[in-house]
Amino acid sequence: MEENISKIKEEALNEIKNSEDAKKLNDVRVKYLGKKGELTSILRGMGSLSPEERPIIGSKVNEVRDELEGLIKQREEEFSKLELEKKLKEEKIDITLPSKKVKRGSKHPLNRIIEEVEDLFVSMGYDVVTGPELETDEYCFERLNLPKGHPARDMQDSFYITEEYLLRTQTSAVQARTMMANEEKTPIRVICPGKTYRRDDDATHSHQFSQVEGLVVDKNISLADLKGTLEVFVRKLLGENLELRFRPSYFPFTEPSYEVDVSCFKCGGKGCNLCKQTGWIEVLGSGIVHPNVLKMGGYDPEKYSGFAFGTGLDRLAMFKYGITDIRLLYQNDVRFLNQFDRLDR
Amino acid sequence: MKLSTNFLKDYVDIDVDVKTLAEDMTRVGNEYDEAGKLLDASKLVIGKVIECKMHPDSDHLHVCKVDVGNEVLNIVCGAPNVREGLKVIVALDGAVLPGVTVKAGGIIEKEDKPRVIKRGMVRGEESNGMLCSMLELGLEHKYADEADKTGIHELPEDAPIGEDPIKYMGMDDSVIDFDLTANRGDLLSILGMAYEVGAIYDKKVKDIDLTHGENKENINDSFKLEINTDNCSIFLARKVKNIVIKESPAFIKNRLIASGIRPINNVVDISNYVMLETGQPLHFYDADTLNGMIEVRMADNGEHLKTLDGKERTLSEEDIVISDGKRAIGLAGVMGGLDTEITDKTKNVIIESAIFDGIKIRMTSKEILRSEASSRFEKGLDPNRTYVAMERACKLLEEYAQGEVVGGIAKYDKENLKNREIDITFENINNILGMNIAKKDVLDVFRRLGFDTIINGKKSEYKENEKDLEKIEKILVSVPRRRGDISIKEDLIEEVGRIYGVDNIVGRLPEMPMKEGSYDKVTRGIRNKMVDLGLNETLSYILVNDKEAKYFTKDNTELVSLLDPMTEERNTLRHSILPSLLKIYEYNKARSNKDVSVFEIGKAFYKLGEEYGETNKLAVLMSGDFYLGLNKKQVDFYIIKGIMEEILDYLGYGGRYSLVIKEDKIPDELHPGQSALISLNGDMIGCIGRVHPSLEKDGVYVLEIDLDKLLSKKVGKMKYKEVSKFPTVNKDLAVVVDKDVTSEEIAMVIKKAGGSSLSKIDVFDVYTGKGIEDNKKSIAYSLTFEKMDRTLTDEEINESLGKIIEMLEKKLGAELRK
What we know:
The complex is a heterodimer of chains A (345) and B (818).
Chain A: H1 2-18, H2 22-33, H3 38-44, H4 53-90, H5 109-123, E1 127-128, E2 134-136, H6 137-140, E3 165-167, H7 173-181, E4 188-197, E5 208-218, H8 223-238, E6 244-251, E7 254-263, E8 280-289, H9 291-296, E9 305-312, H10 313-321, H11 328-331, H12 334-337
Parallel strand pairs in A: 1-4
Antiparallel strand pairs in A: 2-3, 4-5, 5-9, 6-7, 7-8, 8-9
Chain B: E1 2-4, H1 5-9, H2 18-27, E2 31-37, E3 44-54, E4 62-67, E5 72-77, E6 87-92, E7 96-97, E8 100-102, E9 108-110, E10 115-116, E11 120-122, E12 125-127, E13 129-131, H3 146-150, H4 165-168, E14 174-179, H5 190-201, H6 219-222, E15 224-227, E16 232-241, H7 250-258, H8 266-278, E17 282-286, E18 293-298, E19 304-306, E20 312-314, E21 320-323, E22 328-331, E23 335-336, E24 349-356, H9 358-367, H10 372-379, H11 383-400, E25 404-405, E26 410-413, E27 420-425, H12 426-433, H13 439-449, E28 452-455, E29 458-459, E30 474-479, H14 489-500, H15 521-532, E31 536-537, E32 543-544, E33 560-561, E34 572-573, H16 578-590, E35 596-608, E36 611-623, E37 625-628, E38 631-634, H17 637-650, E39 657-660, E40 670-680, E41 683-691, E42 700-706, H18 707-711, E43 729-738, H19 743-754, E44 758-767, E45 776-785, H20 794-812, E46 815-816
Parallel strand pairs in B: 15-18, 31-35
Antiparallel strand pairs in B: 1-14, 2-14, 3-4, 3-6, 4-5, 6-13, 7-10, 8-9, 11-12, 16-24, 16-25, 16-26, 17-24, 18-21, 19-20, 21-22, 22-23, 27-30, 28-29, 28-30, 32-34, 33-34, 35-36, 36-42, 37-38, 39-40, 40-41, 41-42, 43-45, 43-46, 44-45
Helix pairs in contact in B: 5-13, 7-8, 8-11, 9-10, 12-14, 13-14, 19-20
């Protein structure tokens, strides 16, 4: 009997080893361990054995069965692993085929800059204000200390609609409007981004362009406040560690007036073609609000002072994104526009 | 303003190179465009042609032997005027000349790089340099004489061989071309520049030489002055007799050239020279052509005058005119008259030195001509200089034109020649600059500028130290009239900042109460939503041509046109953003960018009666393919309608808008069968549709919403709406109706018949074709039923469906499609 068990074991082991797939392995399992299997039949036929033999044979059979079951399981795992590998191989795809995505649009680069500037100043408590683009001579010039016939009007060749109406040449027009609108004459902290228009058209000038204007009016406002504010502005927009230089200039609506140069963000101030070897790039016009402008706005220049600044956003956008021709901003080629859907980090 | 540094050095001693001077001037607010030598050429010597033969292998070249002092050079020269014995300018081997090529007739072509002269062979003949024309040394064409234009420069016979020709000619000068600000009229003079440069380098300005003799006659005996307008505040006249007209001395010519003015003759040159020196424009009349008098008055409307340039001018009563009592003889401050000008035959001269109203001059010169004189009057002059310039002209006419100065001055003077006095405190200065400048340093700035300072009623000798000034808060600054730009204390603060320097200011943020800033969140929200929907934002020109300006609008407003457009293409302000977007579409189409889906938030303009106005609008243009989720679809009406619904729903107007077809109100630029107005609670807020095929053949779809109108309609806060806890039931229903019946009409009937448990009606198919009669269409709906409080029974749903079908049959003659 024992011999018989050993023989079955030998045969079974052999067959398990040689089974080619999961199905054949299962056949082997049924053949030996199934209800009618060879090993099972021995257990069934144990009735014919003597009581002494029964436990011996029984434990022997169980031992062999455990061994076979273990081996079958092991073999099964091998087969399922092989099968998985095969399946994975079959499922291989060409990952270089085009993706499927939901396409977003993009914001115009000038509006990206405007939003960035707005967010910065709003975070410092400024209000963003707007004014008409079809402006009156009074607000565009006269209330900015530029009476009719003033020679500085030549700095801005304007598009007039009538003698009184024109397309605003500067966002500064909003200065007077903001002061007039503030009836309680409380402190002012505003910026005004927007479109402006002058008779000019070439690679660096467009007859339509965008500016942002800033105005702060309060007691004891000084050039130091202006410088600190512009440092925050310029460093946020164009790069940390940039230095500012105030160069005296002339604007009728500020006194003193300064052009603000920024250390060249391309070469770091060493001199390059962008800064024309000077190390500095002119970025802003600014100054202390002229007492006449405060007076016309209803603020007493003996009590209040203020600063104002303005800059061309087209140029900032060109610097920031490396755009070499201003006309690209207004051609709106979709291949150009599509590039501006990216988080600027 | 072109500043000759040689000229400047007459009045202030400085020892800096031209670049440094230009940079230092920039730092105090006077920007420059260019700075460099008047003639930028090196390795030049004066030579003498000692032999000149025709080149054996050329019909125009000469082979010359040129004595340059230490050697005799063989040089090939093509100039027709080269000849034996001529003194010439020789560029030696290695000479660097300005990058210009001189073509026939003296036409100059500029090049990027300087020109280097090298020894070489010219058609087999050795050439060890070049004989030069002044044009080749960088002289502008308008200053060159005939020899220079057609050949080489001819130096005088006594020119010293071997020496530097530029130095010999007195043209070793440097020039800075300043781009001055509009307030600094004082810097349009050498004297003004000298004061500015003197302040920078702390140098005193030298006196101008006004000494001259005069005869025993008196001008007032034979000459009368009448000023009959308020627009002339000062008018001085002197007479100089028996002048000799000839060429100016070299120094006058060279300085005029360096300053950008062409020399004419000694008398004309002197009037320009004095204007450059003092800033005061002068006018010289041929005294013998005058009627013994000068009158200043406003012109009569339609009065005629032939100006110096030979042109007949028609004047208006806005122009200030000079007359001799009989006729107009000059346009004051702008240009003299032809009849009274200085000619070769002029013997006696009347000098005019006057100040005319800047605004009037500006208006006249804008109409007629901008001149060196008019630009100075416009910016304002120092009345003291009116006298200085007059005397200086007499001095120079006496010295360089052998003139005899007649005694006396014909004079009209309503000017105040006194300095302007301005009170200021040290605190004022430091408060505005945000600095802490020592009091003595403030005084030092005024000293350098040449301003007097009065402390406690006493003129400062500028010897105070900080301790002397301890108790002084307020000072009085006396500003000379030459600085017409300084009238209030803020102007003085600027001067302190300019000369002391503001580089040391430490920036800080204004100390103001904390508060939340505000911005237009709605515009930002619209922009974000449109980008999320897949559209590109554009920024277009608001100026379009007058034909397109009113496209896509249909109202009674008038065009808003520019008085003086740059081009006809952009002569009018748009009434709608869509014409601008259409241009963008065409631009892209021309570059094979077929898929264009763009939007813009911007302004549109109008004129209504005499009022001008502007409106904020949102415009959308879509054409070609558009991504709908993962799929690209050809844009059609329903896609742009979806964009419209998305944005209106997003802004909180869901359920309040509809499309209406009012044929007479729909803009002509839209396809009549594929367009509508957008109505919000009965108000028309915009339009939508396909661009009319006569305007754009391809399928281009547009949408425009008047944001001002839209956003004036209030919306409630966003609130959560409860969803049913019970399952919904979906039923499909397809009906066949006449083609003209709209989906909206069907939906209205379904909604009414379906009752409160019908929560959603969706169209999922529209079909015409096989199986459907020609004038009919089939529309399939997916209907959703739900109740908030229970599950609907089959009986209830079937009852609703039955009612819907019954009503559709009854109201619209619909048939259930089987």
